Amino acid sequence: MSTPFYSSDLSAQDLSNRRQIRVWLLFICFLILAMVVVGGATRLTESGLSITEWKPIHGAIPPLSAAEWAEEFEKYKQIPQYKLLNEGMTLGEFKSIFWWEWGHRLLGRVIGLFFFIPLVWFWARRQVSSWLKPRLVVAFLLGGLQGAIGWWMVVSGLVNRVDVSQYRLAVHLSVACILFAYLYYLAAVLKRRPELEREGWNVFGDGLFGAYAIVGLVLFQLFLGALVAGLNAGLTFNTWPLMDGQIVPSGLFVMSPWWINFFENVMMVQFQHRMIAYALVIAVFVQGFYLMRGNRESVLKSNASWLMVAIVIQVFLGVVTLLGMVPMDRALAHQAMALIVLALAVEQVCLLRREKEAALR
């Protein structure tokens, strides 16, 4: 069985297999990024509840006749969002939100097919290394779970609410981002690179602990960002760097019990999203300067540099999105950039693990 990180003993065919699988996984990552962006647009246009049923197979076909459109519209009229927010909406207006949600669901189906069919092809042709097989099965199961979580999220907005639960939205986005990070990591492992040499390697002194911490912080920040979106918290306190005229605003713990403020208090939800952003900037720059000043390989220094650039761009996009009261173009750019930051953070973990294995051989 070939080891994940080292390819010096692999045949030309093995290297070709790795390259093909890597391209496929990166393409799936791109589709997941697109899915996250389309999901963000679906949220911003309040389109996510326009399809009130989950039909994994039949639902891929949109309404094709006037009667089918009328039937779909009638189902939407039965939920609280229509009755309380959109009563009097025309069929044309309904179609505009329907297509966003239908496109979001269709893209999910496309991702499933683009993952499953090549997986079967590579597996049947014995192109998948034994260490990789269980990891790809886990990814496939995680993708299926994500589809179920998406419907679980939609159900929360069909009764007694006019939108989906921010808790379920946060879980839905978090699982998508975890799947993205997992697949990107596998693709990074499969990339053919020179071995990274380092002597006297240890986890706390050589950056791997910091790299894992940054990935964890990015995923946590994405979870908090979903809470912000779910509560429409970006439409409040639209100033920066002060929030409600203060660095630390009053009113962060007005709800009882105290812990619920972290999930349901609009002020606290936005405040903690800001604070974790600052923590991420500090962590990325401390890690980056540490790696760049040491006697490290150029690929590690390059990754650290790009991660610092990306986190600055991401903070800038977050600020202008807030100041503009969440215009769609800025909000979607902010969401897409978050996954680019995540990819660079995952890449750093992969590079440092490669360095570790080279040092400990």
Describe the protein.
The structure is a single chain. The mean pLDDT is 92. It is built from eleven helices and no strands. α1 runs antiparallel to α6, α6 crosses α11 and α7 packs antiparallel against α11. The protein has 361 residues and is mainly alpha-helical. Helices cover 68% and strands 0% of the residues.
List its salient traits:
single chain, 361 residues, mainly alpha, 11 helices, flat
Low-confidence stretches: none
> Would you tell me the overall average pLDDT?
92
N to C succession of SSEs: HHHHHHHHHHH
Number of strands: 0
Q: What is the overall shape? A: flat
Largest sheet: none
Q: What proportion strand? A: under 5%
Q: Compute the number of helices.
A: 11
How helical, in percent, are the residues?
55-70%
Radius of gyration from the alpha-carbon trace, in angstroms: 23 Å
Q: For the record, give the distance between the C-alpha atoms at the N and C termini, rounded to a whole number.
A: 17 Å
Tell me the structural class.
mainly alpha
